[in-house]
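Record Glycine cleavage system H protein, 120 aa.
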Amino acid sequence: MLRFTEDHEWLRLEGDVATVGITRHAAEQLGDLVFVDLPKVGTTLSKGAAAAVVESVKAASDVYAPLDGEVTEANDAVVAAPETVNQDPEGAGWLYRMRLADPSSLDALMDEAAYAALPK
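=>
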């Protein structure tokens, strides 16, 4: 199940763990990424709180926690090679995984059709 936020983050749910990243639109708007800072495993995130930072040649941007939960994994590959986020933002360029405090809260986020209709 793929869901999106208005802040241009995506989540893919597998069981009660969501993989989180930024959308292709966000990656294109940022330009070439040169730095990624991810949350540490075990960090408890609250919806709307800054969870990660992506920095490009244009700007630095916070990536917000889309829902409440605990970080279970960080994608160290994008820390070592930030350009992976630009090349495959909704695949190999994922940022972190989190165990959702309430998996049903995912229903409040947008599906692909609703995200596609969002003014950009």
